[in-house]
C-alpha cells in the first residue's frame, strides 16, 4: 500500500501529543492533560477511520479498549484498538486494516491492535480473563455503532452471565498480579498500575460492580474515587516527567512528580500515595469478599436456602455469614467502645468485619471521651495480641476513620515514609508489624500489656520534629492516662518508649558480655525491672519488623547475652506476686458451698465470691464449673490454706449475655465436688475448651517462695477457655499442694502465680505443667 495514505493524520497525532507535552502546556494538570489527549486521539482516530472507509454503514467498527476506552489516556501509553467486521473477505480486511494501522505506526504512538468478528471477539473474551476485562471498558470510536454495540454490550452481558464460572480465575489472576508487584503502600518504588492498591485493582472493582456482585463503594463515600484519581494523576505525571510509559515510580522521579501534584517532595508523595493505595486495596478486598458471598448464595434455591447462623462473639457482636456483625437491637449511638469490642472479636475469631457494620460504627458511634474503662483496655489488648489476624482488622478500622477516634495521635504517622533505608514499611505499618511480632513474645514477659502497648506506640514521635524517642515518651504519657494505666505503669511505658533503642545502641557500642554494659543499661532504665523485661522483647520485635537485614544471628546472640546479664543483676530481677489477702468468710454451721455474684458496673464483668470446703480438688472443680458456664476468670485472689478451705474473690467476664444464676453455680459446684463433673457437662466443657497442640505459647517459671517453704510457679500463656482448670489439674497431678493463687489476665495474656508446697513443689513441676498446656 502507499506509504502516504493517512500521513497527515500520523503527523497530527505526533505533533499534537508533542505540543501537549511541551513546556508551553506545562500548566495543564494531570486530569486536564488526560482529557486533552483523549480528545486529540478521538478526533484524529475518527477522521482516520472515516478516510479509511470505516463509516456508519461500512460493516466495520473501531473500538477503543484500555486507557482510551476508559478515557484515562496517559502521555506515553499504547493505544489498544479493536477493528470489528461482519465477516469481510481477507483482501478487503487487509486493505482497511493497512489504511488504519500504518498511519498509527508512523505516528510513533504505541499500538496494540486486533481484527475480529463479533463472535471471535466474544469467544476470546470468554476464554481469557484479561481479554474479558479489557472489553468491559470498551467504547465505539468510529464506524457502525450497532456492530460495535454487539461487541461492547455483548461482552458485558457475557461477563455477568459467566462470572460464577470465571470468578476463581479472576481472583487467582489478581492475587498473582499483586504478589508479583507488591503492595504500593509498603514499597519505596511502587508499581502504580499492577501493585496492590493500584489502577488494576480499580478496574477489578469496576468489573465486579458491573457483574452486580458489589456496589464498588469504600467505607467512606467518595474516598475510593479520590484515591483512584490520586494514583492515576501520579502515573500521568510519572509519564510526563520520565518521557516514557512507566508504571514503577522510581525514586529519581519522586520529587518532580510530587511537585507537579502539589504535594511536596518524594516523601510527602509517598505518604499521599500510601493513603490512596490503602483505600483502593481495602475497597478491593471488601469487593472480593462481598462478591464471593454473593456468588455462594446464587446457586441456592428458595427451598434450600437457610439464613446464616448468628453465633455470639461478644456483647452485641455476632458472627454472621462468615463476617463479624452487630447483634440485633444494638444501639451504637450510645456506645463509644463498640468499635473496639467488634475489632477484638473479629481479630480473635480471625474474621473480617462486615462492610455494613463498619458503616454503622463509623456513622453512629460517638468518639470516646475521658478515661477508658477496664473493659475497653482489655478489648484493645485482645485486639493487639491477636497476631497475624490483627492487621486486616486494623486496616478496616483505619480506612473507616474509627482508629483515629480511638488514638488521635495516629494521624501524625499515618503513611509516614521511613527515612532510614533499613525500614521496609512506612512508620504506621512498621508499628503494626511490631505488634504482630510482639504478640508472639507475650509469654516471655511479666507485663504482656505493656509490651503490646509499647510495640504500638514506640515510634509515635516520628511524626514530630526532634528526637523521636524523647518526643514519643512525652506523647505517650497522655495516651497512657487516657487508656487507664496507673502512674507507675505510665512511667514505665514512657521509660520504655524513651529508651526503646537502648539495647540496640548498647550492643553496637559496647561489649554485651561486659558487666558494665548491663549496669549502664539498667541505670538508664532507672533500675526498672519491668521496663527491662519488656524492652528486651520489644527490641526483638522492633528489629524484626524493621527489615531482614536488622535482626541477624549475631545481633540476636549479642542481645540474648546482654539480656541474660541484666537479669543476673539484683536490680534486674522481677518480684514474685504477694501473698493474696482474701476476705471471704464462711457462715457458721455445717461446711457448705457459698457463692455470691454481683455486677461490677463494667459491662459484662462480675465479681464472684466463693467459699468452698476442701483444697486443691475444690479449686479444680470450681475452675471447671466456671469454664462450663463460660465465666472467664479475669482476675482472682484464691487462698486454699487451712483451716478455712478455699476462699476466693474473682472477677469474671461473661463475654456476652447475663451470667448464670449464683444458685445454679453453687448447685453445680457442690455436685462436682461430691461426685465429679457430670457426663453431659464434661462433654460440653471438652468441646468448649478444645485446644490444638502448639497453637499457644506457654512459659512456666519457678522461683523460691518468700512466705514459707516451697516454690512459686508462674504460668504465662495465651488465654483460652478452661486454662485455669488445666493448670490446676496438672499441678495436682504432679503431687504438689496449692496454698494460694493469683490470677491476672491482661487482654489475651494470662499471668497466673501458684504458691506450691509439699513433695510436688519442685522444679520438675514446671515441665509437667508446660507439657499439659502445650
TrEMBL record:
InterPro entries: ACT_dom, HD/PDEase_dom, HD_domain, NT_sf, PII_UdlTrfase/GS_AdlTrfase, UTase/UR. It is an enzyme of class 2 (transferase). It comes from the Bacteria. Pfam families: GlnD_UR_UTase, HD. Residues 427-525 form the HD domain. Keywords: Hydrolase, Magnesium, Multifunctional enzyme, Nucleotidyltransferase, Repeat, Transferase. Residues 712-774 form the ACT domain. GO terms for molecular function: [protein-PII] uridylyltransferase activity. Coiled coil: none annotated. Its EC number is 2.7.7.59. PANTHER family: BIFUNCTIONAL URIDYLYLTRANSFERASE/URIDYLYL-REMOVING ENZYME (PTHR47320), BIFUNCTIONAL URIDYLYLTRANSFERASE_URIDYLYL-REMOVING ENZYME (PTHR47320:SF1). NCBIfam families: PRK03381.1. This is [protein-PII] uridylyltransferase. It comes from Dietzia aerolata.
